[in-house]
Specification:
Blueprint lengths: L7 E4 L2 E12 L2 E8 L12 E6 L6 E6 L17 E2 L4 H5 L4 H17 L4 H10 L1 H16 L1 H18 L3 H20 L1 H44 L1 H66 L12 H5 L5 H15 L3 E2 L2 E2 L10 H25 L5 H20 L8
Parallel strand pairs: 1-5, 4-6
Antiparallel strand pairs: 1-2, 2-3, 4-5, 7-8
């Protein structure tokens, strides 16, 4: 390693400085690293430094792992135990025996033949391994931070194994029991598979439920806080209620309980009656729906209530619901049956589409036929009927003329 030859200091492949000078102290090389100002404080007291070749001609650089301790200042040193030199291939190969070196040579030769012309593919493969290397570095860092815990784990594991070494029979029984359990699980593999198939849906439902539980937790805290004042007064409330409870206990024991026992047979009958009522409810529901439909039809009136305008033609052409005309039908029925005399109820009759002249002649003839026998019988009995006949005839003519001039036989609805 010679200063001034462009030999650099790198962290994760990034150049952070260069090698300044190299001195020998007590048989140990002391290398001065000149760190660029923007990277001051990056290298820490527990940093590690590895000497690595940059080319096959042994152009060297320093690969630094910054560490996480106290930042190093000007003139501070990294311990020699945290450094490692470059290892030459001959030093590595010299540790192998002849057969191993031959196998390694065969492996390298075969690898070279297999990768011939595939350098770009190898580079892409190694590039895709970068996330794995990053995760492994994170794992190794976490393991290094937990050296004490791992040491304790290994010690506890050793004590456990030592304790188990004297319990061969119990371990054999445990293995046998585990074998039985796994055999039973193997027989139930269909059910286990079905359960595993349902597990994603159950997990999704669990996630949704936990989200709701989180919302419930957010709302539960204010509710619990609001309950604290009543709970603090609960003892006072119990003290206030206690006299009432003491007074009500005999009533419940001596009156309400005997009443409940006496009503049990009737409650059973009521249950049977309720069962029958439940059976009839579908038919009753259908009937009520039909009645509701009938009421809707009768009450249907798209234009709503239309007031009278005074125009007879417009008022006659109003669009009203069936219930409107039903009320009119009731009124007309009452009007039809509200007249009577000593001989009984009179019925009003409306005749439409009748020839007035022909009807008057027929009525005149009919009246004369009715009155003629009466006048003859009165005359036979010696009753003077001349004046009576004249008066009756005049009255009949008046009534018929009034009927004829009143628009009889003409109906407009």
């Amino acid at each position: 390693m010679t200063p001034g030859q462009g030999q650099t200091v790198r962290v994760a492949g990034v150049e952070i400085g260069s090698i300044g000078k190299v001195e020998l102290e007590d048989g140990v090389a002391v290398v001065d690293m000149e760190i660029n100002p923007e990277y001051d404080g990056l290298v820490r007291s527990d940093a590690t430094v590895l000497l690595r070749p940059k080319t096959a001609l042994k152009d060297m650089f320093l690969e630094v792992e910054p560490g996480g301790g106290k930042p190093l200042g000007e003139g501070d040193r990294i311990q020699a135990a945290n450094t490692a030199p470059d290892v030459n291939p001959d030093e590595f190969l010299s540790t192998l025996d002849g057969d191993t070196r031959d196998y390694l040579k065969l492996l390298i030769t075969s690898g070279a033949e297999g990768l011939e012309g595939r350098g770009e593919d190898l580079r892409q493969t190694l590039r895709r391994l970068e996330p794995l290397h990053r995760d492994l570095a994170a794992v190794n860092t976490a393991v290094a931070e937990r050296r004490v815990e791992l040491k304790r784990l290994i010690r506890d594991y050793g004590e456990t194994v030592q304790e188990l070494s004297g319990k061969d029979e119990e371990l054999a029984e445990l293995v046998s029991s585990a074998n039985d359990v796994f055999s039973a699980l193997a027989e139930e593999r269909t059910n286990v598979r079905a359960t595993v198939d349902k597990l994603p849906g159950a997990l999704r439902q669990t996630e949704s439920t936990l989200a709701r539980v989180d919302t419930l937790g957010d709302r539960l805290a204010p509710a619990v806080n609001a309950l604290r004042p009543p709970l603090r007064r609960l003892e006072q409330t119990n003290a206030a209620v206690r006299p009432f409870v003491v007074e009500a206990t005999p009533i419940v024991r001596e009156q309400l309980r005997p009443f409940a026992r006496a009503t049990q047979p009737f409650v059973a009958d009521l249950g049977r009656a309720a069962t029958d009522t439940v059976r009839s409810l579908p038919d009753l529901t259908g009937s009520l729906r039909g009645f509701n439909r009938f009421v809707n039809i009768g009450a249907f009136n798209p234009g709503g209530a239309e007031p009278l305008t005074g125009d007879l033609e417009v008022d006659r052409n109003r669009e009203e619901g069936l219930f409107f005309w039903l009320a009119w039908a009731g009124q007309l029925g009452v009007s039809m049956h509200n007249t009577s005399d000593a001989t009984g109820v009179l019925r009003r009759v409306t005749l439409c589409g009748v020839d007035v002249g022909s009807t008057v002649e027929q009525l005149t003839d009919a009246v004369e036929q009715l009155i003629g026998p009466v006048t003859e019988e009165l005359a036979d009995r010696g009753v003077p009927v001349e004046d009576l006949d004249t008066e009756v005839t005049k009255e009949i003519e008046r009534i018929i003329n009034q009927v004829a001039t009143s628009g009889f036989g003409t109906c407009e609805f």
